[in-house]
Amino acid sequence: MSENILFLAHVDESGSKLPNVAYEALATASRLPVQFGGSLTIGLLGANVEAASHTIMTAGAHIIAVSGPDFAQPRYATDAAAVEALCRAVPCSIVVAPGTPRFSRIMAGVALRLNGRIDTHLTELGVEDGKLTAKRWFYKQRLEAVIQRGSRPWFLLMDSGCAEPWAAQNSVGEPQVSMIDVPITPEMTRTRFTGIRSPRSDAQTIRPDAKLLFVAGAGWTKKQSDGKTHVDEAQAMILDFLHHSGASLGGSKSLVDQSGENQAVLPFMTHLNQVGQTGSTPRHPKGLSTCCHGEEPHVVGWRFINERRAINLDPNCGWARGKADVLYVADAFQVIARLNALLFEMSGGPALATTVASFSGCSRMQ
Ligand SMILES: Cc1cc2nc3c(=O)[nH]c(=O)nc-3n(C[C@H](O)[C@H](O)[C@H](O)COP(=O)(O)OP(=O)(O)OC[C@H]3O[C@@H](n4cnc5c(N)ncnc54)[C@H](O)[C@@H]3O)c2cc1C
Fold it and tell me: Residues 98, 19: contact at Cβ < 8 Å?
C-alpha cells in the first residue's frame, strides 16, 4: 500500500536549524517512501524557517511551512493551528514527527482534529508483512510493542537517540518552500511567552545528547579507607569530570534517595538522575559507573548503553558478573582525579576544583 508521508519539525531555539531529534526522525521518515512507494513532504514551523530549510533541502522533498512571529515560541493554540494547517495542506496518510516537548504537547490534539490516531515514544519504524510497523517499549523498557494500524492519518512521534541522524549534504541553491497561511485570532494568542527559567548551568547535569553516561553510586558518600567520608571532594570531582567530559550524570537509587532525605550528599543529584528499574533508561553510546555496586534493579536501566565500564573497589560487585565490558577494581576517587587531570591537560580549561591525588594504578577485569 502506498503511503503519503508528511514529516513535521519545528526550528530549534537558535532558529537556524532543527532540534537533533528532528534529524533522527527525518532519517527514519525519509526511508518510508522507498519502502512504500509514496511521497515525502516536509512541514516546518517557526518564526523563520529559511535557515533550517537549507539544512534539509537535500532530502529531496517538497517543503511547506508556517512561519511568522506568532510561531516563534511554543503555545498550544497557535502551534496546534499551524500543524493542523500543514496536515491539511497536503494529502498525508502518515505523519512522522520528533517527540520534542513542543510537539508532544500538541500532536494528540491535532490527530483528534483530523480524526487520526497517534502513537508516541516510538523507537523504530519498519515494514512487516508489507505494512508499516512502529515499535515502542512499555513497562519500564521490559516489553516491546510492535504496532500496526489501519486508521489513517496515523501520527507517529519518535523518541530521541534511536536512529542515526539524517546527514545533511552540501546543498547549493535555494530551497523551494511553499508558505501556508494560518489565520490567528486574538483568543489564540492569550497565552504569552514571558521567558525561560532554567537551572544554573552546573545544575544541568542530564544531557541526553552526551556520548557518555557517568553514573555515581552511593559509594561516593561512604566512609573510605581512612575511616572518613569525603563528600565535598566527591562533589567537586564529579562536577569537574562532567565539566571537562560533557558527560550526562546518572545516579543509583541509593545515592539519590540520600539527597531526598537532606543528608549531606551531592546537592546536584536528584531523582531525575536515577537510572534503573524505578528510574530512567537513558540512551548513550558509552557508560562509566563509579562507586555503584551494579545490582540488577540498577543495571536494568543500562539496557541502551552500548559500551559499559565500571570502577569499584569490590572485585565481586554486580558489574563483575557480566554486566560491564570492563571493570576497574580500583578506588574511584583516585581514578577520577587522574582522569580529570588528563582531561584538564587535553582541554587547557579552567583550574580544577580538586587536587589531583597520586594514582597508584588499578587492576582491570574484562
Ligand atoms: C523494586 C526495586 C526497584 C529499584 N530500582 C532501582 C533503580 O531504579 N535504580 C537503582 O539504582 N537502584 C534501584 N533499586 C535499588 C538497587 O537494588 C540497589 O540497592 C542500588 O542500586 C544500590 O546503589 P549503589 O550501588 O549506589 O549503593 P551500594 O549498594 O551501597 O554500593 C556502593 C558501592 O560503592 C563501592 N565503593 C565504595 N567506595 C568506593 C571507592 N572509593 N571506589 C570505588 N568503589 C567504591 C562499594 O564497593 C559498593 O559496591 C531498586 C530496588 C528495588 C527492590
Answer: yes
Query: Quick check: CB of 317 below 6 Å from ligand 1?
Result: yes
User: Same structural domain for residues 74 and 107?
Assistant: yes
Domains held by the chain: number: 2
* Structural domain includes residue 55: yes
Q: Is the CB of 24 under 6 A from ligand 1?
A: no
Q: Are residues 223 and 359 in the same domain?
A: yes
* Nearest atom (ligand 1) to Cα of 311: 43
Same domain, 155 and 27: yes
Residue 194 covered by a domain: no
Report in angstroms the alpha-carbon separations of 283 from 24, 224, 247, 331: 14, 32, 12, 27
Summarize pLDDT for 8-26 with one digit per residue, the tens. 999 998 999 999 999 999 9
Write down the pTM of the prediction. Answer: 0.73
The response to whether residue 323 sits with its C-beta less than 6 Å from ligand 1 reads no
pLDDT at 362: 45
Which atom of ligand 1 has the smallest separation from the CA of 220? 38
Long-range contacts of 316-320 (CB under 8 A, 24+ apart): 317/293, 318/293, 318/294, 319/289, 319/293, 319/294, 320/294, 320/365
Residue of the CA atom closest to atom 31 of ligand 1: 293
- The last residue of a domain, from among 164, 189, 214: 189
Q: Domain of 73?
A: 5-189
Q: What is the pLDDT of residues 302-331, one digit of tens each?
A: 999 999 999 999 999 999 999 999 999 999
Peptide bond into 74 cis (omega under 30): no
Domain end, chosen from 189, 216, 251, is at 189
Quick check: is 196 in a domain?
Answer: no
Average pLDDT of the chain, as a whole number: 90
CA of 322 to the centre of ligand 1 (A): 16
pLDDT digits (tens, 9 = 90+) for 33-82: 988 888 999 999 999 999 999 999 988 899 999 999 999 999 999 999 99
C-beta of 313 in contact with ligand 1 (< 6 A): yes
Best of 233, 266, 291, 333 for a ligand 1 pocket test (most atoms within 8 Å of beta carbon): 291
pLDDT at 102 over 90: yes
